[in-house]
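chain below, 96 aa
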Amino acid sequence: MSEKEITVWLTKQLRLFIPIKDNDSAEIASLFKFRTVLKGDYLLKEGQYGDWWGFVYQGLLRSYSCDANDVEYTNAFLREGSFTSELVSFSGAAVS
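prediction:
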């Protein structure tokens, strides 16, 4: 997948929420950093600030937290087309 393909996809997703002109797509895409996340990678770890929004272009992401005994609890599965962020952290008020 090329960044151009992702830009087209991202524009389609954003148009679900706001009107976007075709000639604005490239400028909007320039505001984003494209990143590949592999199995086992983390978007955000405990104690980090999440000052970004994520978009799932392809694949599936799992959001989870751990209790005091390190038992994992799944909070959500994020499929293609999903948006994600740690809103509390994003506000700068708290870390994840």
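The longest helix spans residues 3-15. DSSP finds three helices and four strands in the chain.
thats it, cya
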